[in-house]
Amino acid sequence: MSRLPFNQGQPAFIPLSTFQRYPEPEMVERSRAFYADIRRRKTVREFTSQPVPREVIENALRAAGTAPSGANHQPWHFAVVSDPELKRKIREGAETEEREFYTHRAPQEWKDALAPLGTDSDKPFLETAPYLIAIFGQKKTVLDDGSEIKNYYVPESVSIAAGFLIAALHHAGLATLTHTPSPMNFLNQLLDRPAHEKPYILLVAGYPADDCMVPNIGKKPLEEIASFF
């Protein structure tokens, strides 16, 4: 349960005091620098068990919590797991679903699409990496008095917050993996989350292994992902 993270009734406004405007040359340089940094990010499946300061994770989550959301309801919950026994149980649950996926659920076309990534049902990183962050979307907000408020644009809001989180962890010097076993409702039970919350992503975070290998893949160029009018 939670307190209202948003206003009800009449709108209330305050002056915009946090916006920072830059000279155009500096804007261009900052945009180039951000792109140069974020393009280094790679999805990693080989992690070390080296501990990560909890404050790094907390600050990245704070950054994720600043994401825009439908009606500012902030319909997300981040369940952070570092306990080895709980990570082991999560791995067991994920691998059960993944074995079913690769053996029965996934059509051949889907498995063909995954082939260049070298994925399979074995997920040792779920135990090796120091942190797992289960990202849940909340269909409704349950307040401290037991009343409920419907949330809006939940998938869109959670996706934006997850993007903020991945970027923040990368900026701090960590590698990540977006793991999405399907279905993921075993996470609700293991992490004691209510039925009105849906797990969207199991985000793995930590340092890449010294001998880490990543798929030799690229990203679409600007002209293929954007159009200007």
Automatic annotation (TrEMBL):
UniProt keyword terms in alphabetical order: Flavoprotein, FMN, Oxidoreductase
Q: Does the keyword rRNA processing apply?
A: no
- Domain Nitroreductase residue range list: 38-207
The record, for InterPro entries, names:
Nitroreductase, Nitroreductase-like, Nitroreductase/BluB
Pfam families, sorted: Nitroreductase
Q: Which Gene3D superfamilies match?
A: NADH Oxidase
Name of protein: Nitroreductase domain-containing protein
